[in-house]
TrEMBL record, chain B:
Entry keyword annotation includes Nucleotide-binding: no
Record-annotated membrane-spanning stretches: 21-45, 78-98, 110-131, 168-189, 220-240, 274-294
UniProt name for this protein: ABC transmembrane type-1 domain-containing protein
Assigned GO CC terms: plasma membrane
Every ABC transmembrane type-1 domain range: 73-293
Membrane topology field: Multi-pass membrane protein
GO BP, sorted A to Z: transmembrane transport
Gene3D superfamilies named in the record: MetI-like
A Pfam family this chain is assigned to: BPD_transp_1
Keyword Cell membrane: yes
InterPro entries cross-referenced by the UniProt entry: ABC_transporter_permease, MetI-like, MetI-like_sf
UniProt xrefs under PROSITE patterns: ABC_TM1
Record keywords, A-Z: Cell membrane, Membrane, Transmembrane, Transmembrane helix, Transport
Length: 296, 303
């Protein structure tokens, strides 16, 4: 009896100690996570607040310190003004056009070639695939210069083609989808083959529906990468009416160097669509990182 | 009869293979593999795009090794990589916290990802504002802190001071990368550590720190290694966008990186051959690191 009670007491103490430890652990973990979250969000708060402030207020001061972080005025006119001062709408449409064509082109051609590499046998396949992989570690700067010269000789500089075409054919997209195709079981295809399905039929009706997650991942990566791409459009585009958003914003900045409210309004508008895409495709994004372990 | 039939099937499959490969392969040839060869050839020429190219042998490379700016910009690139250890340590810390199976993980993950998602010109414009010495957020906070502890603290002219421009870019880069890809990779790695190992360590009476150091750390070392190598490879090719937007490569060239120098040579000054030569040096650096990675992978890390 007494021994039982003692044991019970000891056990209770042990459980209590463990619970306390777990509690402390949780508090620390939440502490780290909250500090991290505040650090990540703070600059964005600063940006949104500035974009809604009266232009003079930022430069002249007279605001309390917290007014830089939490909007106290809502001057939506800044956004209208940004659209008026700079052809943002045009930049938007250019960006959307370039991003859509690049993404569709990239995903389509990558899916075709990935299928060929993963499932079909033909002479030279492995050698070509090796060439694809080998070029993946070559810095973009190496190919950028000859491609620029090529486009110049084709007379394509300052055209949409120059922005879109080189972005479509990446070894990365092919590699990623091929890795995914390889993980799919081939039973279904064999069945389809016996039923007399053509290679295109197998690809289109059997394999593609199975690799929706991988396609979504590649789409998301390509979309975001192209949307943010700054250097290449900067290099190949000269005329303002073909600027994409990043180039347009940079150009806007060089003109209105200290017009912070407008600059912040422009930045918010550039970030907004990408944020939406991320929110809806977050799952694919995270899965994609785990899948490939390679940065898009 | 049967033999013939099989042969036909094979041929059909090969034809299909070439057909599927064709669209991508043509583009790959035109925009990747031929340019790689062309760039190699170009690095032995001197060419301003106006007069015909002139063969100069290895003169570009000799000039490059004598070019004090090249070395300075290499140094800049390496110094800016000081962000990597901070960023990786931060990613691990966040991943460890998130691995505690708490509520709201998805929310936190989304928030941490914001800087990575929004990377690009908008963010650099934003940080140029934050670093503004008079109206920027950072110096306002430093000033406020000084008031609280009764010290006249004044923040530096971040982006226009040669001493502070690099730290400014490093701080921003840590902010940008700490909650992104690396954290996700760490989180996946942490979730892959077998539960039994911790139980065994607990039976042996290990405390939290001992558990981390003897179980977690060795178990996730492949991930750490991968992240560090990829960050270094990326680091050598990084630095154009933020420097172009925030500092223009200045002050006094202190934020110009290798890639920025390539851009200037190729697209501002039209020294095409020289720019190609620099890009090949960059490639050789990346290549050496990659090969070292292959060599070391088995030895350093614990599986």
């Amino acid at each position: 009896m007494i021994i039982d009670a003692l044991l019970d007491k000891q056990q209770k103490r042990l459980i209590q100690a463990r619970a306390r430890k777990r509690f402390i652990q949780r508090v620390i973990a939440y502490g780290v996570m909250i500090v991290g979250a505040v650090t990540m969000i703070a600059p964005f708060l600063w940006m949104v607040t500035a974009s809604l402030t009266k232009a003079g207020d930022i430069v002249l001061g007279g605001r309390d310190w917290w007014q830089g972080w939490i909007p106290t005025s809502f001057i939506w006119k800044n956004y209208v003004e940004a659209f008026r001062v700079v052809p943002f709408l045009r930049f938007y449409l250019n960006s959307i056009f370039v991003v859509l064509l690049t993404t569709v082109g990239q995903v389509a051609t990558s899916a075709f070639s990935a299928y060929a590499f993963a499932r079909l046998r033909f002479p030279g396949r492995d050698q070509i695939f090796f060439a694809y992989i080998a070029t993946m570690m070559i810095p973009g700067a190496v190919t950028m210069i000859p491609v620029f010269i090529l486009l110049k000789y084709l007379g394509w500089i300052d055209s949409y083609k120059a922005m879109i075409l080189p972005g479509i054919f990446t070894a990365y997209g092919t590699f990623m989808l091929r890795q995914f195709f390889m993980t799919l079981p081939s039973d279904l295809e064999d069945a389809a083959k016996i039923d007399g399905c053509s290679y295109f039929g197998i690809f289109w009706r059997v394999l593609l529906p199975l690799c929706k997650p991988a396609l979504a991942t590649l789409t998301t990566f390509t979309f975001m990468g192209t949307w943010m791409n700054f250097m290449w459009p900067l290099v190949v585009i000269n005329s303002q009416e073909k600027f994409t958003l990043p180039v347009g914003l940079a150009y806007f900045q060089s003109l209105h160097n200290t017009d912070w409210t407008l600059l912040m309004a422009g930045s918010v508008m550039m970030i907004f669509p990408i944020l939406m895409v991320f929110m809806f495709n977050q799952r694919y994004f995270v899965e994609g990182i785990k899948l490939s372990g390679i940065k898009g | 009869m049967r033999q013939k039939f099989q042969l036909k099937d094979r041929t059909k499959e090969a034809l299909a293979g070439y057909g599927f490969l064709m669209p991508n392969f043509v583009g790959f040839l035109v925009f990747t593999s031929i340019p790689v060869c062309a760039s190699m050839a170009l690095s032995f020429f001197s060419w301003d795009l106006l007069s015909p190219p002139k063969f100069v042998g290895i003169a570009n490379f000799i000039e490059l090794f004598k070019d004090p700016f090249f070395w300075k910009y290499c140094w800049n690139t390496v110094v800016l990589m000081c962000a990597i250890p901070f960023s990786v340590a931060g990613s691990l810390l966040l991943a460890l916290a998130m691995n505690q199976k708490l509520k709201g993980i998805v929310f936190f993950r989304t928030v941490y990802f914001l800087p990575t998602i929004c990377s690009g010109v908008a963010i650099y414009v934003l940080w140029r504002f934050i670093y503004n010495p008079e109206f920027g957020a950072l110096n306002a906070m430093i000033f406020k802190l000084g008031e609280l502890i009764h010290l006249p603290l004044r923040g530096p002219n971040w982006l226009t001071d040669e001493q502070w421009a690099k730290p400014a870019l490093i701080i921003m880069s840590v902010w940008q990368t700490v909650g992104g890809y690396n954290m996700i990779l760490y989180l996946a790695a942490l979730q892959g550590v077998p539960r039994d190992y911790y139980d065994a360590a607990e039976v042996d009476g290990a405390n939290e720190w001992q558990k981390f150091w003897n179980v977690t750390w060795p178990q996730i070392s492949p991930t750490t290694f991968f992240i560090v190598i990829m960050s270094i490879i990326g680091g050598f090719q990084a630095g154009f966008d933020p420097a172009y937007i925030m500092t223009g490569g200045g002050p006094n060239g202190s934020t110009t990186t290798i890639i920025y120098y390539i851009y200037n040579n190729a697209f501002q000054w039209h020294n095409m051959g020289y720019a190609a030569a620099i890009s090949w040096i960059l490639f050789i650096i990346v290549f050496i690191i990659t090969v070292l990675q292959w060599r070391m992978f088995g030895r350093v890390v614990h599986y």
